[in-house]
Amino acid sequence: MKIHQIVFSPTGGTEKVCQYLCEGLGGETVFTDLCLRADRLQVPSIEADDVAVIAMPVFAGRVPAVTVERLRGIDSCGARCVVVAVYGNRAYDNALLEMCDVAAGMGFRVVAAVGAVAEHSIARVYGTGRPDAADRDELAGFGRCVREKLEGAVGPDTLCVPGNRPYRPLQKGPAPQADGRCTGCGACSALCPVGAIPSDNPGGVSEELCISCMRCVSVCPNKARSIGPVEAMVTERLKPLCTVRKRNELFV
Ligand SMILES: Cc1cc2nc3c(=O)[nH]c(=O)nc-3n(C[C@H](O)[C@H](O)[C@H](O)COP(=O)(O)O)c2cc1C
Questions:
Q1: CA-246 nearest atom, ligand 1
Q2: Which atom of ligand 1 approaches the CA of 120 most closely?
């Protein structure tokens, strides 16, 4: 039995959460990076007795449409899976339910679901430094619980997770722009998961293709990319919703 970590993590928080969970889950791990551009994606080969840990960030209460599309390109082989929605200390809204629905629709048997907090990738003052050491211990503990369930020791067959259908409508966010500090190094273009930044014009961005995942902002060595004044507006708007430390949750 292998553990397939199937992860979309533009700014690294989702990947850390998944890694900490898998520390408790144990076993041989195979990593699939859904953040690679479509032409570079490697489809994992999952066997029926493997377990997939599918981890995605929450964008406006949903999971990014592109990740769902990429996930659906994978053959579940009827394997068991754990879904993980990682959010920036506001709320995961319908994202966990959506992930359960998508995974079940692909033929995965969803055995557990996790809602976990990481630093907010737009308003970095919320969830700063998370997942932290306390989260790491807790997530590893969740992983051990899931392992017990996989070994048949605990838990019912059906999962009940929070969320509503129909899900909230998908929202389009701002496309980060480059300023005068851009040297044209191309790091953002090479790492953009959707190819929204042309390699022959790394200072540009396609508003149409951009999914506002903030990867270009986080990888720029010169801090040349930003969403400008929108960042301060979002930070202010989220203040009443984000200042209290939110919990990680396990559903088994
Ligand atoms: C466009 C966008 C929308 C977001 N919407 C939410 C949200 O609805 N609720 C929330 O708590 N965090 C939200 N976040 C924060 C991310 O869910 C969180 O920072 C996540 O850890 C990012 O994953 P990553 O570090 O793997 O990129 C949003 C972030 C972005 C970029």
A1: 11
A2: 19
Answer whether 0.85 is exceeded by the pTM: yes
Residues 6+ apart with CB under 8 A from 1: 27, 28, 49, 50, 51
Distance 156 CA to ligand 1 centre (A): 30
How many Å apart are CA 46 and CA 79, to the nearest integer? Answer: 7
Ligand 1 atom with minimal separation from the 127 CA: 19
Residue 91 token pair: 């709320």
Please enumerate in sequence order all residues whose Cβ is within 8 A of that of 206, keeping only pairs 6 or more positions apart, or say none.
175, 196, 197, 198
CA distance 204 to 18: 32
- pLDDT tens-digit map of 144-200: 999 999 998 555 567 999 999 999 899 999 999 999 999 999 999 999 999 999 999
Q: Sketch the domain layout of the chain as residue ranges.
A: 2-166+244-251, 177-226
Query: Chain centroid to CA 29: how far?
Result: 18
Check residue 38 and report its DSSP letter. Answer: G
Q: Which CATH class is domain 2-166+244-251?
A: alpha beta
Q: How far apart are CA 26 and CA 130, in angstroms?
A: 22
Class of domain 177-226: alpha beta
Q: What is the pLDDT of residues 111-146, one digit of tens each?
A: 999 999 999 999 999 999 999 999 999 999 999 999
> CB within 6 Å of ligand 1 — which residues?
9-14, 57-61, 86-91, 118-122, 173, 212-214
